[in-house]
Amino acid sequence: MNGSVRSSAALVWRHQRIVWWIWVVNLVLAWLSSLPARATLSSVLNHSLQSARFVTGFDAGAFAVMLIRPDVQPGPLATSAITAAVVFLTYLLFLDGGIFAVYLDDRKLSRAEFFESSGLYFWRMFRLSLYSLIPFALISAANGSIAQWAGKLSNDAAPERLGFFVNLGGKLLCGLLFLFVRLWFDLAQARLVKDNERKVLRTAWRSLKLALHSGRLYASYVGIAIFSIAVFALGTALWYYLPHRATGASFLILELVTIVMISSRLWIKAASARSVALMPAEVLIMSPLAPPMAEPTLNPAEVAEGSNAPEPPKSE
Amino acid sequence: MEIRCWRICLITVLALLTLRGAAQTAPLSERVVAYQIEGVYNEKTHTLDATELLTYTNRTGNTLQTFPFHLYLNAFQPKSTWMTEAERTGQRDESKDTPWDNKHFGSNEVKSFEVVGQGDLTKQMKFVSPDDGNMDDRTVFEVVLPKPVAPGESVQFKIHFVAKFPEVVARTGYKRDFLMAGQWFPKVGVFWNGAWNCHQFHASTEFFADFGTFDVKLTLPAHWNVGSSGLRTGEHDNGNGTRTLTFHAEDIHDFAWTADPTTKVVEDSITLGNHTVKIRMMMQPGHMTSAPRYMQALKGTMRKFDEWFGQYPYPQITVVDPPHGGGAAGGMEYPTLITADTTWWMPKSLLVPEVVVEHEFGHQYWYGMVATNEFENAWMDEGINQYSEAKVMDALYGRETSTLNSRLATASERGTDLASYVGVADHDPLSRPAWLFMDGNSYGGITYFKTALMMLQLENLVGEKNVLHALHVYFERYKFKHPRPEDFTSTMNEALGQNMDWYWKQTIYGTEVLDDRILSASSDRLDWYSKDAEKKGTTLYHNLVLVQRRGTFDIPVLLEARFDDGSILRETWDGHDRWHNFTWDRKTKLVSAEIDPDHGHLLDRDPFNNSWTAKDDGKATGKIAGYWTLLTQWLEYALSWLA
Fold it and tell me: Which ipTM was obtained for this model?
């Protein structure tokens, strides 16, 4: 574990109240969205002897039959889950400003300071998130194309497992690209807050260059992602071996996994924030990549002197 | 005296040997057809150039002058009925609106058609479309002979044809070097119920043919492993990279073969009574982990069928494991040859290889020997076989775990059958011809699963042993014949010793839906006006369970009521009316009530409303809703990567 990973983990640990709040909202939103499902299920199961099929085990056939009942509508139930996810995303976008303010300064903000930062940067974070959809969509499209190609290989290529490995490799590659884009926009988010930058697109553009020169930070991202996946795998493996009746233990283990996953997401944010906080000012301000929308306004005197000409960014 | 004894012994032994010989050679079926086919396969063009000599013996009792033939491979052409139906509603191997691709093209081209002694009738061949009038469908042709064939007479057809195989679809065709040759030769229709029965090939139909003998000679690349119906009887290396193989099969109604240079052959045998059957499995090298699973399922199935229904009389069964991408060849039955289905990553907990092998072997009985008309009465082979599958899988792998057996979840044959049936319960009657069902879901849900549930439910009405015995009688009576639905029902009625027409009327010929439920239940004080506190064991209660017949299926209803003193009562209602009150005035209160407490009403489309408990038990709700909450949390988490 390199220093950046360690220190950003310590940052998340020191400000763990953020983790708990995010987890609580994550849980409460999910619980609220499950209320219609809970009501439907209780009307079907609570006074039926058939419910035993889901207590001592899980009868997939009976579950399928239950889903076909006219009063059990999986469509609307799924819609409520998606709605909860969108609300949670909005909530995180709102918190991003406060989270980065905490991580950049590494100090405990008062509630007022925290929410002031959150509110101040909300729209900028929202716009940044919209811009991030473009590269994410491209990666998603690439993933879809690779999966389609892999499917064709699985059918047609003589080596039987070729399609599987192409798909796996493609997913891995897309995962790495995804992490890079996340790094790029995490850096942009951190810079927005650090410099109270208003030009969102320009910040995103400059952060791309910065991200391209942030090899060690990217390695931290990959490491944290692997850690997160490992915890997920371990947690679900533990849960797999629990008896069906152990619902309390299942809840504890799987919620712990969820907390670790949320922490990991914050961990990489903290790594970005720490990286931006430690960067020399000129690296952040100066970039050879001109933002496409902002025309640079130069003082003719400075042009004549040439002494303040921008320097290329330095790698971390 | 001694000499006399020796003579008697000798005569007895000779007589026994003679009888045994006669038994061995006596045909099992009324052999109507004798096919002799010779063909040369071209692996580059995926074509077989062949000549067929068909000897047809008229055992119909009628004079025949018109003869219809199937050319099944012509189904794989853009304007055929099969392709049109598959394109419109989807099919097992063809999704709806799949674009046409030339690799899907298949054909049976008849180069010449001669009737021995009557001349070349190629020009008299006429394509017909008896089912839908589609003039572009070329899956059935007819020929009118100059000279009729009298009852008892034979006629010989000499047909030169070229079969072009499509990339594997609907259980036939090639995939890379693999070839599954099914429905590959011109096949004469069946004269049945006083008329020719020769339907076009539809997206949802299978096959129907007469029993007979097959002598097939195939010239193939020398390095290919070959499997077939019947037995291999000869082999000749031609010295030019090809070899010619000869095969012989008796008392079957179709002949399929397969070839693949990469398969590994696994051989074993099983002895059932005094009859030993050779098992030949042609495995893909990457699927060898499934070989023991296939073998165990196959042997277990063969034992159960032998025990329950009757003997498998053939000397061999071949199991073909199709390659990856060739799944369209998987899960298919041909006489004495079946195709299986697996993948290199198949989990042990998912019993797909077992289910497929079990099901396809079951067709050796329900299709192979009891050769029903799959076009018109698909339930009689697929459905009865699905019932057999449920019985065998339950016996071999456990009733609750017969399709899925993992720590996370289990699934049973009965449960998955019901899940497949519920959504289409009132769409079509079983008795409907296969191509006239509402859609593929209805065809599958009704033909396979309703029949299976109908038979399992019958066990609840008349007893499991009685149903198995009745099916044994039906098998013995109709093996090597073409029974009709009324043959099935009358044999069952006779063997069960009771008239079950009321049941067949609703299940086979009707679309009645079974959905009985407990509408309400209560235990109210009889002295409701009293101000005294309730006293357990002293206070008298009016216990009431209101049962409603929500569906249209009329069947007796058994109710089990449990009371808080531990007593259990069972009462029956004839189920004719729309509702019924079960009442008991007792000093005990109801704890629970359940209709169909033995869970034998398998056709009941909603088992969740069949019971009632006084206590509100939210364990299951809490568990499922808890996991739903967790999944939502993870969905939220996944989306949070955009923030």
Answer: 0.89
